[in-house]
Amino acid sequence: MDKLIMILLVSMTIGVLYSYVATKFTMNKLILYLPSYIGIILIVYMFTLYSPENTGFADLARIISVMLLLSMIIGNTFSGLIIDRKRKRQN
What residue intervals traverse the membrane (predicted)? Predict the structure, then answer.
């Protein structure tokens, strides 16, 4: 369980770092929230369009993949919102 939490925190940190680096190079919100958009598309794809045979641990792997994507989306979205709010206060 500790390893799973660590992996989820690393995924969230990647989302936060992407937001930080993206704001240094561009002011475009589409690029800032790009990992969140891609993550939402992948989650929808995994649960609606992609339906292989459910054998073995395939369902568990799908749930863990969604957990990783959600942690990245949460990290990217919250850090993007915080950065946007700070940018508006400076202007």
Answer: 6-23, 30-51, 63-83
